[in-house]
Predict the 3D structure of the following.
Amino acid sequence: MYPAPISEYFAPSTLEECLDLLDQYGNQAKILAGGQSLIPLLKLRMADAPIIIDINRVIELQEFGEKFLESGNRVLRIGALTRHKTLASHPLVLSKYPIISDAAKYIGDVQIRNRGTIGGSLVHADPAADLPVPILVLDSTLRLVSKDGERTFSADEFFLGLMMTVIEPNEILAHIDIPSPQPGTGAAYYKYSAVFGDFAIISIGARITLQDGICQSSRIYLGGVNPRPQRAVETEEFLNGKTITSEILQKATDVMVEEVIVESDMRASDTFRKVLLKQYGFDVLSKAVQRAKEEQI
Amino acid sequence: MTTVSETKWVGRAIRRREDPRLLAGKGKYIGDITLPGTTYVHLVRSTHAHARIRNIDTTKAENYPGVVAVVTGEEVAAAMKPMLVPSIIPRLGGELQIPTVYPLAIDKVLWVGDPIVAIIAENKYIAEDAAQLVEIEYEPLPVLEDPEEALKSDSPKIHEDWKSNVLWHGELGDGDVEKAFREADYILSERFYGHRTGCAPLETRGAVASYDDFTGLTLYINSQRPHILRMALSQILNIPHDKVRVIAPKDVGGAFGTKAPIYREDLLICYLAMKLKRPVKWIENRMESLMTIGQERDQIHYLELAVRKDGKILGLRDRIIADVGDGRTGVYLGFVMPWLGAAYLTNAFDIPNVHIDLSCVVTNKPCLSPSRAFGEFPARFAMDYALHLVARELNLDPRDVFEKNIIKKFPYVTATGITHDSGDYVGAFKTLLEALDYDRVKQEQKEARKNGRLIGVGFAMGAEMSGIGSQVFVAMENQPGYGSATVKIDTHGMVQVLEGDSPQGQGHETTIAQAVADELGVNIDDIYISYGDTFATPFASGTLGNRGASYTVSAAVLACRKLKTKIQKIAAYLLGIESDSEEFIFANREVIWKKDNSKRVSLDDIADVAIMAPTKLPPGMEAGLEATAYFEANIASMLSIGVHGAVVEVNPKTGDYKILRYVVVDDCGVPINPMLVRGQVHGGVVMGIGNTRYEKYIYDEAGQPLCTTLMEYHMPSAADVPDIEVIEYNVPTPYTPLGTKGKGEGVPGPVPATLASAITDAIDRPGFKLLNLPLTPESIWRALNEDK
């Protein structure tokens, strides 16, 4: 379990240098951020990277905080190099976007959370990873940059399939912008895994906006179920416009279990995944509603 | 003047003397050993579970810069005898078919991971690069994954010269089983399955070998049994015994049984060092480790119990089918574990009439390697859970069924020939029920049920081997059972203990020192322990099967006692006392006359006389202060009891369960260091929970292993396990000098039946039973929905 030969290692300190290198080496290069996916893949020789570009010194990728866009909208900007630890425990996350902390705090173990980055996790696009689901649920936008310019995608456009995204070989994910929540919005995430901190057997993320007890809008994604986190569109439609009660959430859970396409693997069968979604779907929806009532997201 | 006080070290929970160096990162493991000019080995392993090798092309690998040599099977085989020489073949009667084993596959591979080509290079990166350039043409053969399939007469033969796929078949038992079943009021008959799981030590296997024509072969290896390995290497490689030195490193990062067999790689690394005349280093990577070692359990039990209506078990029949993998490791051949599972099947119960038919079947998987609770894990599950099923079927309280059947008189010999030396099993069992507050839990269970909560309580016993005496061990593994130790007092009055075993985390530097400190009246800081080097230590079978506290510590104590006789003679002579030699107390580094405490000599002065100034010794006395002892208990085997109990809550919608309490009542005779005993129990229970719920070596139909990283082989972390309560219930054994017995090896054994019975009690539905491990939430959910 030693990697194949690595001919060059670069550690640029600016985004510009980084983009030059990506432009020069393209497919030959792999970006090293926290290394929590790349290093194991290299050691297993499942990834081959003659050129390593270590971005840990690139300051432009380390933004974290609220920001006003030109449009006047306020967002939480999360630089691609933001560590899971920050997402799990930052006061801004805990107070306004606790769904991100719900997800980040059970990624792997302390060492992994100290090293691992959101950018690394999102571009790796493991369907059972923790961060894609809340990022999707929060209608985030992802900014990709390259020598050719910038491209912006909604999270839903960004993920294509099993470990596949829209990102081009000469591009890098710079940051994620999460829009400020509407008043009366709450969101929650739950993961069921075989052992603590493991990848999801199923994960559920939900966001609900309430006004006078009525669901104004909702967004639900399910992770670990098939090659890409799946949006539960019918469940959203079922919820929108309804007065939220326990029974409605129970029924919404049934709709969700019905519409999701699940696959079997070594960790669980498709049937059992549905059992888990039914068990925990209601809890996640309830928690999102509760947070909405507390005007949290 | 110091007063006479005997500081007792035995029984104190002192911190481990090993830990400071380990915590400071200064441990010396096999990976830390590199000799000048070392080369590195990477093995090309089979990607097929069963195939003929049509061609191997190593040209590109040989030409890769930095490659020292590329070696294939025939070359290695030509240089040695087939690996399974008689001294490492068990002699357990029955019918045994012995495979012909060489380090590398020659024309056929038998499992995914079977080593085929060795690449030796200037560094480990180059070795792995070159390994990717080796081209092997395979002709796939039918893959046998299911031992019951492999048993069928029309199945293809894995070892083509055998008459069947049965490596070993035999019968165990005694008594009139037919009569017991004729007289039974009720017969329980079930198929129990314990899946392939075991352990994954943090430190994988590893070896560094060097050779020159003058000193011969030196092999550093993290083996549990360096002396046995040395003996086998000399025989297989045809090297005189004085030219083979095996050294186990000071620190070994866990073994749990996996480093006890003699593996094909051990021979290969030695051969390569001899061929190249350069040091050769091989460290198994995690993937190889998960593909090769730590795979155990894997038994099917067709168990029948003949039961009287009051719950007394009159007789037992069991047909066991064990999947032993390819059967190609030395000492165990994969079948000693299931044999032990059969021999210890009746556990802590008095069942006079037993018949067990055991078939150990080869399949296209790696050979079973010993794993803590060694063969017993699935057997304990079948036996103890069956008792709970009996209780449910006959509407009896399971505690009465257990109590009625627990062994009460000692020594007790089971129908399978296992000797239980001493103890109070019923007392330990009752202590567990008290600690669980059994009646109250049953009451709370009713209350909780009204609120829709399913609480259950379960328990199981584990009579674990505590070393095995030569009477049994010679037959079982062709090795002596005694413990051995040499105790030397040096020129500075410090005490060196050389033991024949070779620990892997058990804490011998602490526990042996505690026992020796008491014997010689010294501080443990005056004692240093040496082990692992076969050129320095007395012969012994190794650190395994709970031998340490029963046999090895006892040998050290006996060696001290031999020395004490001599020391007292010297003391009497120096003090000018006419004394019978047993009249002295050893305390505070002094030898003190009991009759007059003012008459005393320091140990340093005695050492000085005995070693540096022998002219002052009593006339005619031999110089020096050292003694070697071999301890053999005056009984065939000793066992130590552990009783486990759990309270669980089950979610019937998902089958998920939470362990609310886990309690162990534990007897190790006399705990030398209670903290270490607790550590053993905690670790054992965690391993048991891991094996019961989380860990499984999974293979697909083509024999491909699906759990080759720790992302798939799920070991629990601290966050996954409950608080473990340990209650000591110690009954000193009369068969060791200090009353001590070993503890730790068998601790995982009672876990699956404990959890299965607790879950079944929580569900409490007629016909609901859990007959297959692992007990995952999904498997419980399925059991719940199948019987609806």
Chain A has a mean pLDDT of 96. The longest strand of chain A covers residues 202-211.
